[in-house]
Design goal:
Blueprint lengths: L2 E7 L3 H12 L1 H8 L2 E8 L16 E2 L3 H4 L6 E4 L7 H10 L3 E4 L2 H18 L3 E2 L10 H8 L5 E7 L2 H12 L4 H10 L8 H4 L2 H15 L9 E2 L7 H9 L2 E11 L4 E11 L11 E8 L3 E8 L3 H21 L27 E10 L5 H11 L4 E5 L10 E7 L2 E2 H11 L10 E5 L2
Length: about 425
């Protein structure tokens, strides 16, 4: 039986999951591939810590060059994350005519042009299924299963940490800080959860998906990003009273002229499947002109789920090697001639419905004054909640749901409203996605 040899750079959580899967499911994989997948070299800065996965000590090295320059290695797997030295390692592997598998969404979001250009020049495959959605096969679905469609929209819960926090706030009556602490205690959140909580991780992922869906590079700095740290228990409660749940959504919509790409908390009707994806699960909805709406749900992180996606890419590339196939599926989903720069829509131009939470002094005329300002900016009110009495001048919550309105009108109105003397705090805005 033929052997396809693999080198690994980064023996952390996902790397250990990859090696464990290749060990535990070796016979299953061989029976499907018709060949042996053999990891022959593993590079990591720490090769002494026991990771619970047994490998021959001779396979381990602290020098990545031993993987990159190894003459027998067919596929290099990069799982160290970050921009550098991961970028340099991947480009060197490609230059050395070795196929690449990575889970590095941040690198692809920022340096995808360079990586894909090098891969095309050298006729090298780049697998990155594990970069978005963990075990969910969203990359392969867009590149192959949905290829007959003009994709019109992608909407996803693509960060398990943020989804866990919001789920606990919704179902466990936790406040934000308590829910986040619990996520950290259970290993679902990093000691510094900024990338997850503030939406940066989700922005990396929607940038990758947008490139594949529409055949256009996306500048990460041009994506509107808002996290969930401003969401309060009161917002969660009011959303429920209106029939919604709050989720951190990554959104990409193409109207044929411009792409609307953004990450922010959103209120979703409780009747929708996406609203009921809870805990650390991820969910990604893809809409196309021929297939309408499809939702993929699964584990978006973790050693084995993400390791499973990495092994899936290794097997796909190994099949190409064994069959002599080359450039079978373009890494970017589109042929190079089909890649074009599509403009991004300014968030000020989007239209939708809005949840607004004001904190105001309980005085006569405050509600009418706020309503008047909204009306002056062509914003009509659908519903209002105001129940609590003022506690010694500390203010009360005033919650409104609007009808369809333009973002720039909303922002202009809120700037005026937040300047009113009787408004105690900056207004909280949550967009509604139906």
């Amino acid at each position: 039986m033929k052997t396809v040899k693999v080198g690994l750079i980064g023996f952390g959580t996902i790397g250990c999951g990859m090696v464990k899967i290749l060990q535990d499911n070796q016979s299953q994989i061989q029976s499907r591939l018709g060949a042996v997948l053999e990891v022959i070299k593993i590079a990591d800065l720490d090769i002494t810590t026991d990771r619970g996965v047994k490998v021959d000590a001779g396979m381990l090295t602290t020098d990545a060059k031993e993987v990159l320059d190894h003459p027998d290695i067919d596929i290099v797997v990069e799982l160290i994350g970050g921009y550098e030295p991961a970028r340099s390692f991947i480009l060197q592997a490609i230059e050395n005519k070795k196929h690449v598998v990575t889970a590095n969404k941040a690198l692809l979001a920022k340096h995808g042009d360079e990586v894909f250009a090098a891969a095309e020049k050298n006729h090298i495959a780049v697998g990155f299924e594990a970069s978005v959605g963990g075990a969910i096969p969203i990359i392969r679905s867009i590149k192959e299963a949905f290829v007959a469609n003009r994709i019109q929209a992608i909407e996803g819960i693509v960060n398990g940490t943020a989804n866990y926090v919001l789920s606990k706030m919704s179902d466990g009556n936790h406040d934000f800080e308590t829910a986040l602490k619990e996520a950290q205690d259970k290993g679902y959140a990093e000691a510094d959860p900024t990338f997850d909580i503030e939406g940066i991780d989700s922005a990396h992922k929607i940038a990758v998906l947008t490139r594949l869906a529409y055949g256009t590079p996306v500048n990460l700095d041009d994506i509107y990003v808002q996290g969930i740290s401003s969401i309060s228990s009161l917002d969660i409660k009011c959303a429920h009273e209106f029939g919604y749940r709050i989720k951190l959504l990554a959104i990409s919509k193409f109207d044929g002229r411009a792409i609307d790409v953004r990450v922010h908390p959103a209120m979703i009707p409780e009747s929708k499947p996406m609203a009921n994806v809870n805990g650390v699960l991820n969910a990604i909805m893809v809409c196309g002109d021929m297939m309408e709406e499809n939702i993929l749900i699964g584990h978006g992180a973790g050693s084995l789920p993400t390791g499973s996606a990495v092994v899936g890419d290794i097997v796909e590339i190994a099949r190409n090697i064994l069959s002599g196939a080359q450039d079978r599926v373009p890494p970017q989903s589109y042929q190079t001639a089909g890649i074009q720069r599509i403009p991004l829509k300014d968030i000020a131009e989007i239209e939708g419905e809005y949840f607004l939470r004001f904190w105001v002094l309980d005085k006569p005329g405050v509600l009418s004054r706020i309503s008047g300002i909204l009306g002056n900016h062509d914003i009509s009110i659908e519903a209002v909640i105001q129940r609590v009495k003022d506690d010694n001048g500390k203010g009360v919550p005033l919650v409104m749901m609007t009808h369809q309105a333009r973002e720039k009108n909303i922002q202009a109105a809120l700037k005026e409203i937040d300047g009113i003397e009787d408004v105690c705090e900056k207004t909280v805005l949550i967009r509604v996605e139906k």
